[in-house]
Amino acid sequence: MLKYIPTIVLLGLFAVASVVHLYFCKTEQEKARKVSKPFPMIFLVPAIMLLVPEYPLIWMFPLLSLLGDVFLIFKKKSMGFFVAGSVLFFLGHLCNLIQLTIFLFQSDTKIPFIAYFIFAISLALIIRFVFPLTKRYAGKLALLANVYMPILVFIGVFSLLVTAAYADSYQGLLITLGYIFFIFSDGFLLYSNFIKDVKQSHFYIMTTYFVGELLISLGLAMLVTWSVVV
Fold first, then answer.
1. Nearest-CA neighbor of 99 among 212, 219, 227, 8?
2. In this model, does residue 186 exceed pLDDT 80?
């Protein structure tokens, strides 16, 4: 238990920094909001690293998210910052997908091939029906949105395969729930940036973002620390 104390302290600091940032979002103090934005992730990254130092794919997710946050702070100055931040987040999610795939193939439970086929078809359908909407509102960023958002949906559902493979665990469900929050956060971000500006939008975006980051990161780390996959 003592070995987890530094992680618990860092998670506590993550919670405090999140509340402070959300207060600035709610009260629309723009300068304070931008300055405080990276701090929650600054505490979450080492917390996850301490839990699973030998699993870089797991702690790379919050680390790349932190870097993405920094770029998105300056997104109003140049669309290049928005694209760079989005790419960093995409790479973080890609790390999660690779790690989940590794966990899945380490399991003694074999998932029927039809399940993978259904996921592939579902992803293609999502792209097919979402593309006209994103092309209309996101313009040149439609391609980015059509790769990024379906991947979030795909990984969230894919994590259910891990839950099925490790029937005595619930960590996969934490990851799925985390991705539900993440999808809402990024979907609301796209909506408020390209369709209609929403009052106090940052508060809703960052609330669901912080919850999503925490659930996904802890879900992945707990699969290891609770000896589910090792």
1. 219
2. yes
